[in-house]
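Fold these two proteins, one after the other.
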Amino acid sequence: MKRASFDPRRWPLAFKTPALVAAFMLIVSIVMTNAVLSRLRETQERQLAAMSTIYLNGLASALIPHVLREDIWEVFDIVERGASLEGGFGRASIVVVDSKGETLAASDPRQAPVLSRQSDRDRHFRGDARLTVDTDKARAFARRPLIYQDRRIGEIYVDYDIGHLLRERSDVLRTLIATNAVIALLLAAFGYWIIRRMLGPIGTLSRHLDLSVSGPVQPIPSSEIAGSTREFRRLFMRFNALADAVNEREAIAKELANEERLASLGRLASGMAHEINNPLGGLFNAIDTLKRHGDKPSVRATSLDLFERGLKGIRDVVRSTLAAYRADRDPRRLTSDDLDDLRLLVGPEIARRALALEWRNQLGGELPVEATAFRQVALNLLLNAIHVSPSGAAVIFVSAIEGEFLLLEVHDQGPGFSAEARAVLAGESNRPAPIGEGTGLGLWVTRRLLQDMGGKAVIANSPLGGTLVRVMVPVGMREELRDVA
């Protein structure tokens, strides 16, 4: 008796085609699963790297002044407050060492006692790597040197739990396997039912669907549509309309996503650079003053006071950007000295451009206005006035109390603002800042700070012949709200 043959070539086409489709879908699902998991792993690692960079930069900015002063208690305080992470990362383990490799402070002093060496932590890193991931231990290890004026004064070591990210990968893998298995079975059943009716034209449709797996949906050529039956001709035309709609929507969505991402990153990075570079110029000016006249006690006292104010300003800018919603912030009140410092900051630029600066600071005592934010507004407007004024021109700075408002006026002899720049500063435009003009970013930062303080800006003509920027910030509004609370 002859045994039955199981040659696949003799299987019915209605069974063989769905089986081949199911096999193809399994292969595609395996490839796609690997691709999705690889992309997920890369995305998670990029997010970890970005988060670690931002987190360590914030810690470094807060720690450097205290490490320089060897203020161990302040270092402990910053490490303790910075150990709690959000987003499922739990509590981080932080160790701060000095330039000799000896521990200054740690979030867990039992594991890293003071003055102990942390050379064993370097074994987690290869070469100059700043971030490594140990999937076996479900931990991420990061480090960052503490650099001050091109001098290495210490290093920060951080490790935190990434178990939730690994669980996310496992969940995605199980979901992909289940979803792809269900899709493969459904397609096989559907193909078995439809193959008996669509043995010819369905091949064309399947071919174009397969092409859409790895790229845009490809429409069916008109030559193939013309040779099909009336029912399939209508189906192909609808498929082409759907392909055009999907491709157009995908292109628009990708373009909008790229624009939004680039705009957000540009605003954050450029805004941080702009706000930090301003006080840095004053600090370098104070260093030059100390080099030339450091033997005079009054000069040293004034310069050290400016150093402290500038560093506090940088610290407040970083904190306000990276931890904008922390409840323990305590903004410092504005004083007359805060604005007089700006005169020192812009002095070198005034001299370089041969301008005349008329300074009218009529404030006295403390005012319930955030000093850092208002100083940045005044400095941005001063720098803009200096930038647009021609050589030999005059710039006027006025600050006073007018009723219930803090008044700030900056006069220049420049050509005036463009319509777009006026709209940005006055808060009448939601468009991105006109960065190409050289002053757009500073105006955008100024508008944002004024909105936070409840103030407004008005642009008018100055008696000098240029532009007058008049800023009004309510005094006492935040104090009254605080008393009511």
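Now the second one:
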Amino acid sequence: MRIPRRELLRIGLGGFACLGLADMLRLRAAAAPHDRQRTAVILVWMRGGASHLETFDPKPHAPIEFRGPFAPIATNVPGIHISELLPRLATIADRYTLVRSIAHSSGGHFGGSRRMLSGDLHPPDIESRLPRAPDWMTVANSLRGREPRQLPRYVGVNPIDKYDGIPIAGPSFLGQAYSVFPVVGDPSRPEFALLEMGSDATEKRTRIQTRLDLRRAFDRLRASADANAVMQSHDHYMNQAVDLLLSPEARAAFDIAQEPVAVRERYGMHAWGQQCLLARRLVEAGVEIITTQLDGPLCGRVSNWDDHAVNHHVFDALQYRAPYVDQAVTTLITDLYERGLDRRVLVVLAGEFGRSPQINPGVSTGAGNGSNLGGTIQPGRDHWPQAGSFLIAGGGIRTGQVIGATDSRGTAPVERRVAPEDLLATIYKHLGFDPSSTTMQALGRPMPILEKGTPIAGLWT
């Protein structure tokens, strides 16, 4: 849907009360640590937890109460098989690595997501609590520097921030200066616009400037007599925010309509395809940290990957959503390779955990895409942090391989167990930070960016 101008101001300029983009720019300019090589990461997040058994770790010989209806198919790398639901990804297995042995102990959505995104070894799984540790995205954003830029360093295209309204990610003690620049709405819709695209930039600037003048009037009413220097500084960063929102560079990067129709159709003219395309546009324009969340209507009735029987018929839901993720992610990886970005940009496809190997029938709570009529019995798979899989591509890593393995039923790793903090250490390494020695500032004192974790062995030669 189209984002109203007042929503643009709320997101970018913060309205009259909350922290806005101008405040973020001011805080980020407070210091400028040494710069890093402009590597980048795109995290594609499957909110709710995808079944590893129906994606990247099929178990066709498991007993019937574990085995799903989908067969494994060969990829273009001999010996590597994935689910038949992902035929496009099967054709580019030489361009990614599968990790089939990630495991942890946080079995709730809130705690599991926080564990995967921050490396917090004991994340709270209580709805009323905020994440204790900052997520890796804001940590990397803080480490990369705070100098003014034409584009934000960290953008969320359908950002990873909450699960059913409960925060699962955020800057924690690092402060809102490093928060995500959020892009909301469906980029596949013809009316989608984030930055009021078009040629009438002067008119747009005038309209935004009118609102800024009104805000300044209110500010001055409550300003003290000796606050002129503070107000001038505030005005400087407010103007800088307007420049960012209306700059040709920002407008071009966010204007997905500039892409040729053939390219847009290649990604898929649906929300997930266009989210991934916008992620590629942004990383190509210089954004360094991008997240995009695959949820919403394309997931099925309850809009996520949480395939309990009460929510979804797990197999119908996976069959419903698989073509969209298969097309979007395959095209994203292929496009990065074709554009020569495969060494600079690391792509990770993951969720908070896997699904229970044993199929658990239950009563549906309602009909919809991927779910039978309410009151009928349908199969489901439950939370399973004990085992899971993720895909990692680009970043100059060794591809066309599988790291780790689970047992014959997919219940637990039996080879090369990988923890969430190992994945985060891998991401930090790609971004140029040694996770064993790099620190962040926590309330005025240095603190390790990870309590533990080492980059996954075998990804780099």
